[in-house]
TrEMBL record:
TM spans (from-to): 32-53, 59-80, 92-113, 150-173, 185-206, 218-239, 260-286, 306-328, 356-374, 380-402, 471-491, 497-521, 533-557, 563-581
GO molecular function, one term: amino acid transmembrane transporter activity
Topology of the protein relative to the lipid bilayer: Multi-pass membrane protein
GO cellular component, one term: membrane
Domain of life of the source: Eukaryota
Residues in Cationic amino acid transporter C-terminal domain copies: 536-586
The organism of origin for this protein: Oryza sativa subsp. indica
Keyword entries, A-Z: Membrane, Transmembrane, Transmembrane helix, Transport
Record's protein name: Cationic amino acid transporter C-terminal domain-containing protein
Amino acid sequence: MRALMRRKQVDSDRVRAAGGHQLAKELSVTQLVAIGVGSTIGAGVYVLVGTVAREHAGPALTLSFLIAGVAAALSAFCYAELASRCPSAGSAYHYSYICVGEGVAWLIGWALILEYTIGGSAVARGISPNLALFFGGQDSLPWFLARHELPWFDVVVDPCAAFLVLVVTALLCKGIKESSFVQGVVTVLNCFVMLFVIIAGSYIGFQTGWVGYKVAGGFFPYGANGMLAGSATVFFAYIGFDSVASTAEEVKNPQRDLPLGIGTALSVCCSLYMLVSVVIVGLVPYFAMDPDTPISSAFARHGMHWAMYLVTTGAVLALCSTLMGSILPQPRILMAMARDGLLPSFFSDVNQRTQVPVKSTIVTGICAACLAFFMDVSQLAGMVSVGTLLAFTIVAVSILILRYAPPDEVPLPSSLEASFRLSQEYDEEKVRGPPVDANHEQLSSVVESINDTLIEKKQDTSVEESKRRKAAVCSISSVCVGVVVLTTSASFTFLPFLLRCFFCVFGGLLLLAGLGVLCYIDQDDGRHSFGHSGGFICPFVPLLPVMCILVNTYLLVNLGGGTWMRVGVWLVMGVFVYIFYGRTHSSLTDVVYVPVAQAEEIYGSSSSSGFVA
C-alpha cells in the first residue's frame, strides 16, 4: 500500500537538469493551437453530423455540440491549471503521480498507452477508404496501397495505413518543431475546407430558405432528452485537446502558453462544429440526411457534386492531422514513466540532435503500424474513450486534492539524504542546547514561558489544519464514491426500479454532502506555492471539478460491458507489469519524505555547500 500511495515531486528545472538530454523548447501558442485543433477535429465530424441529427437531436444538433463543448471545457479548465503548475511530459499520468499516488498514476499511464496506440491505428485504417474515392471507388487504389485479404488467416491487411503510420513516425523523429509545422499546415487546410462548407452552405441556405428548419417536428423533434443524448455522442468529437498538455515540457512559456493553447484549441473546435452543424442541418431535413456522407450529399442535392472531392480532401486531411496527434503524446508518456523508473530506461532516452524521445517514438510507430496493417481495430475503438475519460476524471480529482489537501511532504533524492541527516542532528543539538550557568537561569525561565505560549498556539493551529485536511480528504472521497454510485445506478436499467431509486438517492446524498463540506471549509494555503506559480487558476472550485467528475464518470459507465471487458484485460496485464517491474524499480523506492519547507532548506544548503541534486 505504501508503494501505491507514493507521490513524486513537481519536476523543477533543477531535477530535470540532472536527467541528461532535455526536450527542445520550441512550441508557442500558435503551434499548440494547431496541435490541439488537429488532434481534435478528425474525420468524425464529416459523418457525425448526419448520424446524430437523424437519430437523436434533429435541428437541435447545434445545441448538442454546444453542451458537449461546455462539458469538455470543464476538463480543459482542470488541464490548464495542472499543465501550467506542472509543465512536464506525461500529461494526466504526471499530474496523478504528483497528487494522487503511484498506483493510480500507473493505471492512467497504462490506459493512455492503449488509447494512443489503438487510436492511431484506427485513424490510419480510416484513411485508405477516403483516398480510394479519388481513384474512382473502394477497389481502385493502386495494388501496393489497396487492402488485401489473407485467405488462410481471414485477415484484411492495409498497407496504406501502415505506410502512413511509418511516415508520421519518421516525421515525429525529425523534431517537434518540424512535426508541429507540418501538422499546423495540414490543420489549416482542413479548417479552410470546413470554412468552405460553412460559407458555401450558408449561401445555398439563404437561397433555398433553410428548408431543414421548417420540418413538422420543430426544433426539438426528439425532445430535450434526444438533444442531451446527442450531446453524449458528440462529446467524443472533442477528445484530443489533451494532446497539448503532453507537450508541456517543450513549450517556451508554459505558464502562459499552455492554458491559452488548450482554451483556444477547444474554442476553435466548438465554433467550427457548431457552424457546420447549423449549415448542414438547415440545408437538408434531418430525417433525409445521408448518415454516411451527410455533407457531400447535402451539396449534391443542390447540384454541387464536385464538392464531394473537396469534402473528401478535408476528411483525409483531418485524419492525417489526427494520426499525428495520436502518435505524438505516447512517446512522451513512455518517457515520463521511464524517468520515474516504472518502465525500462530505454524509453527515457532523448536524442541529442533532434531533442525528442526517438526510441520511444520508433517503438510506438512500429506497434501502431503493425496494428493498422493486420487488425481491423474499429471494434476496439471504444477502448480509446476509456483512457481519455479516465484521464479527464483523475485530472479533476487532482484539482480537488491540489486545492484542499496538496502534498505536504516531498521525496528527497538519495544524493541529499546526507544533508537531511545532518539537518536532523543539528536540530536535535539545537533542542538540547548548550549548558547554562546559574546567572542565566531566571532569564531562561522567562524565555521558556514565552516559547511555551508560542508553541501552544502553533500546536493549536497545526491541530486545526490537520482536522481541515482530514475533512477535505473525506469529502473528496465522498464525492467520488457518490458519483460512482449515482451514475452506475442511474445507468443500470436492468435493476429493479425501487433499488435503482434507493442507490440514486444514496449516491446523490454522498455527492452533495461531500460537495457541501468542500464549499464550507477553506482551501489549503499550500496551493499558492504548489508547483510553478503565476499560471492559470481553475475557477469555480469545487463545483467545476465535481461536475467534470460527474460527466466523465457517467460517460465511462455507459461505454458498454464489452468495452470494459477488453479494457479490463489490458489493465490486469498492467497490474502484473507494475507488480513485477515498476514497483521495485520506481525512483521513489528508497527515498525519504520530508516536509516541503525543510526540503527547500536542504536544497538551498546543498547548493551552497556543493551537493548536486
